[in-house]
Amino acid sequence: MAHTVTERNKRISESRGQNISPVAMNQPAGWPDQVSAFEEMWLLGLPSLEHYLNFVEEDGTEGSAVNRVALIDDWRKANDYYLDLEKREAGIANQVTRSELDPSLAALAAQLRTHSRFRETFDSLPTAFGMVELDRLIVYQKHVSRNYVETLKTNLTPAPDAAGMFRFCLPLGKPKAPVQMRRLGPRRFEFQCESTDFRFHKPVLLRPDQLSGYESFGPVAGIVGLVVGFGSNFLNVISVGKRLMLNNGYHRACALRAMGYTHAPCIIQTATRADELGVIAKREVADDAAFYFESARPPLLKDYFDPHLRKSVPVRKRMSRVEISFEIRDHFVEA
């Protein structure tokens, strides 16, 4: 299994003669000041190149008219830069710092543990609360919405206290993004929302006493619910050995880092076996665990703030859409 960015891309030559300017480990470039209508901030130089090209052509404002040669050239330079980082910053992911949560937050943490969003999300592996360093968190997500990051920055009050920071990173409020719902047919429904976190949850079987506000022409025996909503949006990381991977909360982490914060409260899940990663991590992480947790220099959150690696991609406005259809079979069977 390949362990480096360049090995995973089957690099033809070990050196292309690029003049790569070093960036100090603890002084990554800041977040851009200006934002266009809609932007995605991409980490270049990471697999797969094809994924990046397809995204720019399908979702970018230029569409198929984009200059593919220029895109590939930018990606190649970033890939070379990662090779340089593998030498200069070897082992940096093992140096991420973590600490105990402020004792004043114990009550908030206990309250969060009892909430259904926590119980339904973190029900598989040991979990704990803690403060983690942002810059050295391993990342697998290749792009974030610049616009959503900017929105989150406005939601955080200036100089928040410990409780305010906890609530920002581990929110229990309702999402502000409006949801459009409509019936497409007798058994087809559509839900739309601007949030990229909008999704289908799961089918549930409910008792009549769990339903309120519904008036039926006859007694209700049971309800099948097809639930649509949002993710928990808790900033959480996966701990494997000395390393921490950002599992969820990418936009919140980038918003904090862009505002100058270096550490954040989060939920920490600990995995000690490869099979455990398959339960809590994305498939791409579980399938290439050696790259993220054993390679000399995996992609880190601070890379989003390095102009050698980060590229702004103007995109068309997108909506998350969930369409649901169902079928009914109503017949008699032998008792």
SSE diagram, text form:
Elements: H1 5-8, E1 39-43, H2 49-59, H3 68-88, E2 98-100, H4 106-114, H5 116-121, E3 127-133, E4 143-145, H6 146-155, H7 162-169, E5 179-185, E6 188-193, E7 198-206, E8 223-230, E9 236-240, E10 243-248, H8 250-258, E11 263-270, H9 274-280, H10 283-287, H11 289-294, E12 310-314, E13 320-325
Parallel strand pairs: 9-11
Antiparallel strand pairs: 1-4, 1-12, 2-3, 3-11, 5-6, 6-13, 7-8, 9-10
Helix pairs in contact: 6-8
Radius of gyration: 23 Å
For this structure, what is the CATH homologous superfamily of the largest domain?
Conserved hypothetical protein from pyrococcus furiosus pfu- 392566-001, ParB domain
Structural class: alpha+beta
Shape: globular
Number of E-type strands: 13
What's the architecture of the largest domain in CATH terms? Alpha-Beta Complex
Give the termini distance in whole angstroms. Answer: 56 Å
SSE pattern = HEHHEHHEEHHEEEEEEHEHHHEE
Please give the order of strands in the largest beta sheet: 2-3-11-9-10
On the 0-100 scale, what is the average pLDDT? 89
CATH fold category name of the largest domain:
Conserved hypothetical protein from pyrococcus furiosus pfu- 392566-001, ParB domain
Main sheet?
5 strands, mixed
CATH top level class name of the largest domain: Alpha Beta
Proportion in helices? 25-40%
Number of domains: 2
Give start-end ranges of low-pLDDT stretches.
9-29
Describe this entry's structure for a reader:
The radius of gyration is 23 Å and the shape is globular. It has 335 residues and is an alpha+beta fold. The chain has helices spanning 5-8, 49-59, 68-88, 106-114, 116-121, 146-155, 162-169, 250-258, 274-280, 283-287, 289-294; strands at 39-43, 98-100, 127-133, 143-145, 179-185, 188-193, 198-206, 223-230, 236-240, 243-248, 263-270, 310-314, 320-325.
